[in-house]
Amino acid sequence: MIPRYQAILFMILLGASVAMGVVLWQLRDRAHRRLLAGEDSTPTHAPEVAPVEQATLMVANNADDSLEARELDLPLPPNPDARARSVLGKLLDLYAVPGAAHPVPGGASSIEQVFLLPATTQGAAAADGAGAPSSASEAPASGEDAQSGSELAVVNLTDAFAANHPSGLETETLTILSICATLHANLPRVTEVRFLVDGEQRATLAGHADLTRTYLAAGAEPSP
After folding, report:
1. Contact between residue 145 and residue 131 where contact means Cβ atoms under 8 Å apart
2. What is the helix (H) or strand (E) element at residue 192, kind and residue range?
3. Which of 200, 60, 50 is nearest to 136 (CA)?
4. Strand blocks (E) in 85-145
5. What is the pLDDT of residues 125-141, one digit of tens each?
6. Does 223 score more than 70 pLDDT?
7. Beta pairing partners, 14
8. Which residues pair with 52 in a beta bridge?
9. Which residues, 6 or more positions from 52, have their beta carbon under 8 angstroms from its beta carbon?
10. Cα–Cα distance, 63 to 55 (Å, whole number)
11. Is 169's pLDDT higher than 80?
């Protein structure tokens, strides 16, 4: 026969176990309700999308060595650097599609970065044949020589884009001029453009078009 004190101890332990089970179940249920309430109360935010605006792309045509203005509605971010990269990315996407009038592989991913700096009279001189700085960090800063409101766009291309670009003076020049004209059409303050490849100065795009000079963006068009 079980001693009385053992029976009492067993009943106490049993009661404590039941009580603990009830408490644990209540805590679990309360945590579950809080989790559901938190999920329900958390607002769902759609990803931010840049507003759609009309952009002008100056599209090259190998058939007659011309640039044709093409109006497209594109999501354009407000930041000027990001806006410049967006329009140039779309331009290169057009060149990468099958049957393009100016076929160049690579597309938008060929643009690593575009950033804008104050334009200077030194940049204008470079457009006439002077050498450009070896890196973007050496680009002239704003100062007394800065042209009022004018900007220099530094376009950093990928090495893969330069390596796979069709070689030839005409086709390389068309690519450069179309980039310059597209920048100026969408950001009129951009008057000068320089090119880098993977962040470094490169002698030519694909063996012919000079990348050591500064190009004038305003009025950029193929020579007749």
Report:
1. no
2. strand 190-197
3. 200
4. 111-120
5. 443 433 333 333 334 44
6. no
7. none
8. 75
9. 73, 74, 75, 76
10. 24
11. yes
Q: How confident is the model at residue 178 (pLDDT cuts 50, 70, 90)?
A: very high
As a whole number of angstroms, the distance between CA 98 and CA 16 comes to 77
Instruction: Look up tokens 């700085």; give the residue.
Output: 133
Asked if residue 183 lies in contact with residue 153, where contact means CB atoms within 8 angstroms, the answer is yes
Token pair for residue 180?
A: 């310059």
Residue 142 tokens read as 């704003």
Q: Using one digit for the tens of pLDDT, what is the confidence trace for 59-74?
A: 999 999 999 999 999 9
Residue ranges of domains in the chain: 1-45, 52-216
> What 3-state class would DSSP assign to 190?
strand
Rounded to whole angstroms, the Cα distance separating 191 from 216 reads 6
Q: Do 180 and 50 meet the contact criterion of CB atoms below 8 Å apart? A: no
Count of residues making up the chain: 224
- What Rg, from alpha-carbon coordinates, does the chain have? 32
d(CA 193, CA 181): 10
